[in-house]
């Protein structure tokens, strides 16, 4: 039995919607305006990306259903409506598409559930690793991207010790993104006054480039040189989505404050090599229409003075401090010391990252980094999985402000 076949259709008494019964027993309700504007007949169906065949603003606001019927053994739904503006038009929608677009509460819940993130316990799970040589195969590519989709990061081992090798790795997935620090940047102790990362001191957990409307998706950090004599300098990673789900349960009121109050982030430096003015404000936690956590902005190092309505000031700092303490709980922290030739590859909009302080002891810790698009990675992941036969692959959320 094909579960995406219709078995019956009823017009609701007010003629504003239909209820469909499916062969598997599922019931859906579709509204007349939704049905008309999603018509899949030969005239209306979009066949080219961007094509617009239904001119919605030409329709009256009060459409009604005149007739509804199933055709071809329940594989199509046909409707005629009062208020139609195209002569002789009959709405025609294939059942498979109609079922996949069902917006009943159960289907909406399932849509969000299947895209929700699954968290791993850093105290029980090894840091995920993959070898550079595997990246040349389709299986290797898929495995690489799957680790980033599933866990949020992966360490690529045996990356050639060449200048710009991280760009070559990144470009296997997406063009490298230009940012405040150029396309390729070095992280080493060079006494630079541009960024504190270029020192030996401890860096708190953070997200890079919160001063943009949307920070870069994936960050690559390639350990071109990390001498054994260097003491410290371990990389730390925390799945902020995991933390925030926990935070919401433990401190719901603080969660609400942090998802409402906007924090200013800025990088304003007229003295640096490439003078810049980057400034924006946005809440620490980003939620959506369904109250799903869909993003966050967390970087104390580039926060600007908080300017919010007085009644929120104290509440904000109390809430922020609770979150700040939570992210450092052992249960959330992955810790890894990069070896020379290893490349840390992580979703910057999901994983907070930091570095422990280090002492070079006559050696050197030099990382080279760049950013690529996480949305391109997810796109490649889905395409690659489908090419390899997994037509049911689901793309979970990636921290880009969307739950789907
Ligand atoms: Fe960073
Ligand atoms: Zn049509
Ligand atoms: Zn449904």
UniProtKB/TrEMBL annotation:
GO CC annotations, alphabetized: mitochondrion
Name the needed cofactors.
Fe(2+)
Q: Where is the TauD/TfdA-like domain?
A: 127-371
Question: What family does the database annotate?
Answer: Belongs to the gamma-BBH/TMLD family.
Q: Does the keyword Ribosomal protein apply?
A: no
Protein name per the record? Gamma-butyrobetaine dioxygenase
Q: What is the lineage of its organism?
A: Eukaryota, Metazoa, Chordata, Tunicata, Ascidiacea
Which organism is this entry from?
Answer: Ciona intestinalis (Transparent sea squirt)
Q: Which GO terms describe its biological process?
A: carnitine biosynthetic process
Pfam families recorded: GBBH-like_N, TauD
């Amino acid at each position: 039995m094909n579960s995406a076949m219709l078995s019956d259709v009823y017009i609701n008494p007010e003629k504003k919607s239909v209820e469909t019964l499916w062969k598997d027993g599922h019931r859906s309700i579709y509204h007349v305006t939704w049905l008309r504007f999603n018509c899949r007949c030969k005239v209306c169906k979009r066949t080219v990306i961007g094509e617009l065949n239904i001119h919605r603003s030409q329709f009256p606001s009060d459409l009604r259903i005149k007739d509804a019927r199933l055709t071809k053994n329940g594989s199509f739904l046909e409707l005629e409506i009062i208020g139609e503006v195209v002569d002789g038009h009959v709405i025609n929608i294939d059942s498979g598409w109609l079922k996949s677009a069902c917006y009943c509460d159960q289907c909406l819940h399932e849509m969000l559930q299947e895209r929700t993130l699954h968290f791993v316990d850093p105290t029980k799970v090894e840091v995920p690793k993959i070898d550079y040589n595997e990246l040349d195969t389709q299986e290797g590519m898929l495995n690489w991207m799957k680790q980033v989709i599933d866990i949020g990061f992966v360490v690529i081992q045996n990356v050639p010790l060449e200048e710009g090798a991280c760009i070559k790795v990144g470009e296997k997935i997406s063009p490298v993104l230009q940012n405040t620090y150029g396309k390729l940047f070095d992280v080493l102790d060079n006494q630079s006054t541009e960024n504190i990362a270029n020192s030996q001191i401890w860096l708190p957990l953070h997200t890079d480039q919160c001063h943009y409307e949307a920070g870069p998706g994936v960050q690559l950090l390639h350990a071109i040189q990390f001498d054994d004599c260097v003491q410290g300098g371990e990389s730390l990673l925390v799945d902020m989505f995991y933390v925030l789900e926990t935070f919401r349960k433990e401190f719901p009121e603080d969660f609400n404050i942090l998802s409402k109050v906007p924090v200013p982030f800025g990088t304003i430096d007229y003295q640096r090599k490439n003078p810049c003015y980057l400034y924006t404000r946005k809440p620490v936690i980003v939620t959506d229409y369904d109250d799903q956590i869909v993003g966050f902005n967390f970087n104390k190092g580039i926060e600007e003075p908080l300017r919010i309505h007085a009644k929120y000031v104290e509440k904000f700092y109390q809430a922020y401090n609770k979150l700040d303490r939570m992210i450092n709980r052992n249960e959330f922290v992955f810790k890894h010391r990069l070896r020379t030739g290893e490349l840390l590859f992580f979703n910057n909009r999901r994983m907070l990252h930091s570095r422990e302080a280090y002492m070079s002891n006559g050696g050197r810790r030099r990382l080279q980094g760049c950013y690529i698009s996480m949305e391109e990675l997810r796109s490649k992941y889905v395409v690659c999985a489908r090419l390899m036969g997994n037509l049911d692959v689901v793309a979970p959320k990636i921290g880009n402000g969307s739950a789907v």
